[in-house]
Amino acid sequence: MPGELTTADHARHPDRPDIPALTGLRFYAAFFVLIAHGCAALLADHETAYGAIYWIRQGSGFGMTLFFVLSGFVIHYNYANLVTAMGVKGVGAYLWARFARLYPLFLLMILIYVLVSSRHIDYWTGHSERLNSTFRALPYFLFSVQSWFYVVTDGNPLLDAIGGASPITWSISTEWFFYFLYLAFVWLVLKLRTPPVAILVISLWCVVWTAIAAGLYNRTDQINAWAVAHFGPVADVGERPQDSFVRWLLYFSPYLRLGEFVLGVLVAQLYAQLRRVAVRTLEKSVGAAGFAAAAASAFAVTYVEYSPNVGTTILREMNMNFALAPSVALLIFCAARYRGVIFRPLTCRPIMVLGEASYSIYLVHLVILTAAARMLVPAGHGVLYDVVELLLTTVVIVLVSIALYAFYEAPARKLLRGLWDPRQKRERSVAPSLPLMS
């Protein structure tokens, strides 16, 4: 997930002050994914064609795009100077900070995913063959490269080879690809030294990536035929759409999601150019209107992507990757630059706490939802009863995630980062930790 600086870090880098609204956005990204998966797990029996549950489930696409664009913004905002001004030492500090942020909770959850998977349970009932695929896939997951390759093991794609809720980790693998690639192009982004140039490049990037994403979508038949010939029926988008090569290429792989991350980086560069320009009354009003327009456009784009009343459009052709990215980029820029009543739902204390725990929410929610679905859904209750079940399950997920963040995730990160830079331990004894982003 996106990167963070602590209060102590900001004390040493006053040129990068905290941006609380981005922590709030981080929670909303996790929440959209959580509620979409919750509806799929607990309310699937009540779903009607293009009804309320159907539309709520589409929120996961918005949540993932928000994660990726936000990641690009915060990585550039926090680490651009570090990786370009301090050479190898700066690059090492950057990669270690990302490792310290992601890996402690990631490794714990991988262990849990393996333990609760049906493959592990089958092993203890005398069917050890299914667990072999877990061991073959484990190195990909431990090195966080499972989304970089389309690999079939025992008739299933790599992302599903461990079982449990492990497929959710595809986004973490994709993030790691971005972290490494960022080092190759950050120098070019820093050359965008004026707002007009940054805006021009942002616009051109949107046009170019739209052409790439739509172009690949329009070649689905050719790509699918090649994939079936190379990987077998499991890769067929017609037979197994979720497991198909096309789905992996357009949705899970880092190669098409890169457009969102780079857009976030470019928007962060624009924000950096404008940060020392005072926000006047007129611009503040325009910024609030822009934030509202961005939110409204996200709903409109989602409708165009998935409504049966709208034919195939370029937005539908990008519904697995870039379609919502421009709306999200504007949302993030306005939230970062402006203050006002409309932004308070992003910065109130409860949302900030939930934002800090968003990484835990993301990795934990599918395990709890799956357990809840197995225990509760077969009872066959009415829709109101199942909605209450979803709400109570959501509360449990949130409480578990906050506890996991407070007692494991944050202390583990602090310990690991302290190993790289012992000064942090001394500084944090004076300045309490408050993550900017995760």
Q: Could you characterize the architecture of this molecule?
A:
- It is a single chain.
- The protein is 72% helix and 1% strand.
- The longest helix is centred in the C-terminal third of the chain and has 38 residues, at 383-420.
- A two-stranded antiparallel sheet has the order 1-2.
- Helix 2 (20-42) packs antiparallel against helix 4 and helix 18 (358-376) packs antiparallel against helix 19.
- Strand 1 (152-153) and strand 2 (156-157) form a beta hairpin.
- The protein is mostly helical and 438 residues long.
- It has helices at residues 7-12, 20-42, 52-57, 59-85, 87-116, 118-124, 129-142, 170-189, 195-217, 220-231, 245-252, 254-274, 281-306, 314-317, 325-337, 344-347, 349-356, 358-376, 383-420, 423-428; strands at residues 152-153, 156-157.
- The chain contains 20 helices and 2 strands.
Itemize the secondary structure elements and their pairings.
Layout: H1 7-12, H2 20-42, H3 52-57, H4 59-85, H5 87-116, H6 118-124, H7 129-142, E1 152-153, E2 156-157, H8 170-189, H9 195-217, H10 220-231, H11 245-252, H12 254-274, H13 281-306, H14 314-317, H15 325-337, H16 344-347, H17 349-356, H18 358-376, H19 383-420, H20 423-428
Antiparallel strand pairs: 1-2
Helix pairs in contact: 2-4, 2-17, 2-18, 2-19, 4-5, 4-8, 4-12, 4-15, 5-8, 5-18, 5-19, 6-7, 8-12, 9-12, 11-12, 12-15, 13-15, 18-19
